[in-house]
Structure formats: structure tokens, C-alpha cells
Amino acid sequence: MPLALPRRDIMIEVNNLNFNYPTKRVLFDINLKIGAGLITALVGPNGAGKTTLINCLVGLHAPAAGRVMFEDIDVAGSPREAHRRMGYLPDFYGLYDELTVRQCLVHGAEMHGITRAEAKRLAEFSAARLNVADRLDDKVSSLSRGLTQRAAIARSIIHDPAFLVLDEPAAGLDPDARAQLSALFRQLRDDGMTLLVSSHILAELEDYCTDMIIIRDGRVVHQGIDDAAADAEMPRRMSIELAEPHGKFAEILASSDGIAELRVDGTRAQFHLAGGNAHQFGLLKTLMAAGLPIIRYADEQERLQDTYHRTVAGNNGAGKAGNDGDEGA
What is the pLDDT of residue 199? Predict the structure, then answer.
């Protein structure tokens, strides 16, 4: 379920962010929070602005207005300071084919101001962490896509960042490599790292993400971290099961306030219910008073895919900013 986090548990906070390309605005009044110690999914249609937003978060783009705060650092104002505590894996990985894995890792560490001797030690440690220690002296060009992915992540976290951003990390990986990647992300989170993962593969995000930000047409249309009042009003995914058929089951549900996307199949029903705890309790009382033989009445955690499709469908009529010009943004 969405979390209402106290300020000390916010890793990234974005306030009123706008970004312009030379001919048009592509991000509009972005406000969002990314919770510390979580894995947050960043999703949206192609051209929604995901890659542009990521570039603003990691200090590669300067916004036209607004700001990105990373812990207590203004990212646009002090990008170098922010980069000491951030890791970023773009969708093209950023490794050099003719260098060995060891050389790429050492170079990555030195780019963060780490001495050569310490960089060599960290290369060994980071390679072991990502299970590529036996490939340290192999050229990147000789690696499979899955191993290249692991080497690239090893390079991204060699300086032990608090916050890791990954743009389409599973693209092109086979099912086994994707499963290994999911386990890796969970391990990094358990080690204390905060992750933001941009991906089109919603079913895969279910394996490890605890929050989700949906961006559409340059605007945030859903975020998993919000204030408590908003959380209380979010529609809940409910399911009901009866011990035996009841002739008025569907009728009673269909006439109840706050119910949407109702599906009734014999003795079972699923729907979204708005209105928070009071409305949920009120519906239960109504059903019990009508004599329905309820054996299950559950508030189910909504899947990321369900949240995404419901949110995007509900925003189809919203104002559109157009394509942001990024490949797969």
C-alpha cells in the first residue's frame, strides 16, 4: 500500500519541476517524493518524459523551474556533491568494449575521485558483489548481455551510493537473467540502498518494487508516496466471497456508493471501493444486514499493473504535452 513517510525518510523530493527543450516544454510542474530504503518504479508510455525526468533527478539536465533535493543537496546547484552519493545506470550501460571489466570498474571509481589503489580494491569488491569476479580480466565485448548488465551495475555502485537509478535495466535480458536481476535489486535494498527503476515490464516490477510513480504527457499522474489524507481516499481493490449464491448479491453491490469496476462471478465479486475505512466498514454492514453469507471480505493490495492501467485510463482525457523527444522516454 502507499506509504506516508516522515520528512527524514525522504531520499528525493521534487518541487514544481519544469523542463524545456528548445522548442517546447516537456515536464510540467512535477512534484514527487522517493522514499529512502525503497525500490520505486517509474513507469509511463513511450514519450511520457521518464528519461528526461531521470536526467533531472541525477543532475544531467538543469530544470527551467523548480528543484530536485537529494537528502539536503540541491542537485542542480551542487551536482558533483550529489553524484558522490548517487549511482546511475543508463540504458546504454556506458562500458567500453575494448577494456576489461576490471579496467572499467577502476575507471568508474576514479571518476568519483577515488585513488587508484582504493579503486583497485573496490573493483574486486564490487565485482564479487555482482558475481562477475571471475570475469574481471575479460574484455567487455566478450560478455553476454546479462554479464554486461552486471558489470555495468558493479560500475554504477562501486562508490557505494545511497541512491541508485536504473533506466530500463532488464531490456534484452532472458528470463533467467531477469530473475537474477530482481534478486539483486532486493539484495541492494536490503543492504540499505534506495533504488529507482524505470521499466516497461510491469509484471517484472511486481517482484521487487514497493512504490510506483506514473508519468504521462510530462505530468505525474500517480505516486505511491503521498499525504495521509490522499492515501485514505485512494480506491481500494476489494474482493468478497459468499458461502452460497444470493439472488441480490450483484444488485446490492451495483447500487452501493463508491464502487467501480465491479465484477461478479457467482459467489465471488471484485471491485474498487473509494472512501477509506469508514466506507469499507459501511459496505460490510450493508451486506451483513441484507443477510449475505459472507465468508471472505478482503482489502487486497493492488498490483502495479492494475494501478497503472486504472490510472492511465483515468487520465486519457488529461491535457497532453506531446512526445518529449527522447528515445523510449
Answer: 85
